[in-house]
Amino acid sequence: MVSGNRDKSNSTRSQQAWRAALCASVAFSFASPVFAQDVVEVQQEAANQAEDDKVLDTIVVTGIRSSLKKAAELKRDSSQVIDAIVAEDIGKLPDNNIAEALQRVTGVSINRDFGVGNAVSIRGLPQNRVEINGRSTLGDARQGISLDDMPAAFLSQVEVIKSPTPEMIEGALGGTVNMKTLRPLELSDRVLSVSVDAEYADKTENIAPIINGTYGDKWDLGAGGSFGVVASLSYQDRELRQDQFQQDLRVQSGFDWNDDGTIGVDEFSSNTPSGNYIISREHKYEPWVEHRERTAANVSLQWAPANDRGNFYFDFNYTDRDGGQEAYSVLQAGGSATNANGTAVEKENGELTGFVLEGSNFILPKTWSTFRSTESFSNALGGDWDFTDSLNVSFEFASAKSDQKTPASEFNWRAHDQAAEALDPAGQNRLFIDSLIDTSSHGSVPGVTYLNGVENPYLNQEALALREFRHRTDDIENTEDAFRIDVEYANPGGLSWFTAAKAGVRVTDRSYERNRSEFRSANLHQDLTSADGSEYIVWTMAEFANLYPGTLVTPYSGTELFDQAGYTSENQTAPFTLYNAALLSQDLEGTFGIFQELVQGTNREVTGTLQDNLAFSESAYTKIEEDTQAFYVQGEFDFDVATVVAGARFVDTEITASAYQDGVIVTDTESYSDLLPSINITVPLSDNTVLRASGAKVMRRADFGELSPAYDFNSDVVTATRGNPGLEPYRATQFDFAVEHYWGEANMLSATVFYKDVASFLQSSIYCAYEPGAVASQNQSIPSQICLLPEGVTEDSFTYSSAPDGTDEGSALWASLRDRAGVQTTTQTNGQNGTIQGFELGLVYNFDFLPGLWSGFGVNTNYTYSESTSPSGTPLEDISKNSYNFQVFWEYDAFAARLAYSHRGRFLDDTTQKRTEHIGLLVASNTIDLDNDPTQGNSFRDEISQLDFSASWDVNDWLTVVGSATNLTGEPLISSSAQGVMWEIQESDSRYSLGVRAKF
Q1: Which of 5, 58, 466, 961 is 20 to 30 A from 784, comparing alpha carbons?
Q2: Residue predicted with more confidence, 361 or 227
């Protein structure tokens, strides 16, 4: 809010005012620095006139403008390349979610889960550090706590540090996100702040409470010094939905266009280098609902002695996330692509649409339940002391821990031919159907029409048989104890230009342990018999409904799903009837009890509780212990014409990885050392213009999953990932050059050029793993998905094949091949390098020189261009060439509003995606050959934009009404292959909140 000798009337914003402000904002965002200088001159003339007229005008900056001003001051005063978002007041970070707030920062893009921001990439690199008050936070991986687990209301500011100094903790390849809480002794007055919001999600039609409270005060203890406390508590309980569609892309050599049973020489594609076509199979429709409850607390205690020679603090931070994710999965698998209806069409990229899947095409509907339940702690005891006027010593002991449990359950069915069952009870007896597939619209969910009189097989309870009940739980415990001590000596030798000499030591003890337990009873439709094996038993959905009324639901009509992307044409996959996902998620023991009743007196009978029947999985167990020792020296210099921060950090790392091998735990130890020099130079070109240059070597240790030698199987045990404990860390050399210009109250124009040479990116390798124990529980319903070892080979092999498309699991062909079945496993190796270069532009401008309510307008915009290359010729992952943010805000008297638009271009999301693994730019064949086509398996995320809105009204000095709308345009996320063939669509809720904030 800007106050002074201005009209204080609560003028209503007219549409003309909005249009004029938007036009002015857009025009200014593309203007040159010359225009900016002209505006400065106009402002100066106005100031001079005011002085001449002897008009006393006091400007008080609050709200959005205050946040931008503080962020600009932080950037200006820093010795590093840094950006920040700052809370104008306690509990008032510009966005309710930290990741979504950070997406407004230059060079930052975010990833979302259920439409909620949870992780950031800095200049395209996701390998970053997430800290709180300069120390580690922990989640289930290397990076730190998920940003949606930390309440934004706890924070006073969030820094994105792009150029490191030696005193910073190593481990950030892109940059460091440092979340700062308020220190008690920084308080000027007692604080009691409470906010209550109601958030509405439009897909679930759920209203969720979000409650935050903070109390802070400090006391003068006289000779005992001063003591302060800040305590915050946050609670959130929300329900969100994510509709997801996926399809598997395959190469087809030729296409029988005239459906005469043969493929002629003229029936090959002219739109692909190989002449092959791209077809889609395994169309899967999954609506997910997430119930998420989060409780968080933060307490900070601080004491300073009366002599003001130092201070000591204790910080405690706690977050608890719990809930469940429930999903219904409607999948059709198998089948051969034909032109039986004569409706097939080839698209420009070689993709076929309008074809018929016939033959071995069958459906596999199921109910899912899973969730990540996490408890995280972060505690620190520390302080600093001035032993002399020049010598300061600081220390901190920090302990962090994350306990994560991820339960996952399935209740599965499959299409079953009752007539065939009567003739051959021991057979596969699948019910095959033909379907017409329409993928003509890239941005819409494909249409599926069932042929030959079949309308909707997902409602045919007589033809659906119980296939499987399964439950597993993954437990991850991640801990770190860290101690650091730092020494700073001001003006060594009395040299005025030698501002400070610093040195420090940090040692850590880190442990990561993952355990998995599982119960699985598969192939019930085929293998369930009486106890003596004399009679085959098949439970149909119709029989199940009679035995357990109310346990089956028809949750959605076809029109309730995919309302953002829409369907390309008629789609007969919904409505569907399945086991109630809420029972699977919220009454798991009750579901297990139903399963026990069904198999009582059979060859699959089980007794006891589900917990009693969970079997420990040796192949998934891993433990990684990591010890580090770091030492740094740093000098800070002020030469009048420039300030310099330079030095080096040396860090030694030892990693011990443990896993089971042949029933015995074996260990592998690796160690390496890194010297990480860095320099940051700041040159003040004028009172308002700053030039910066920086260079550094940085490193990032591989994630624990990349280091773990244990297998991480998918739900069907068809694919897996497996780490490599011998991995060296990511290492990079980086340079930044920046110029920043500041003027007025909170105006800033900045430009930064960056270059990063990453010497040791990891690269994916795929092999067929010889794992008889895993293959024994493998789902072999679709043999063409399963890797086959070369004949006679009983060890892991990088040379492998698969069964031909359309192979039936009950066929004689598969019977002759199944002994060669393995698990297609992706692992990581060192060796790939790459470069990232680009530039960033940022602008903050306030139109406070305009009269009346027009003076409340402002614009905050930025643009990032990034280009990346790797030895294979493909771009690096997670890097959009073009990304930008544009915010228009208005703040006048007691009112404030902001419209924020973010956009990021298409980017490589995954190099080895299972559903695109056969598809590369060459469209060569279904044989995986990355040496011949490194784009094979690449998955790209299409460009995506989001529009958000927020507004507030200060009712009085202590009460504010706030509201926001997130994801107004409701754009779906679309993933595609290297040629742009869509394979996945995800869409999430638009969210609307209304609430009040009170500060006493």
Answers
A1: 466
A2: 227
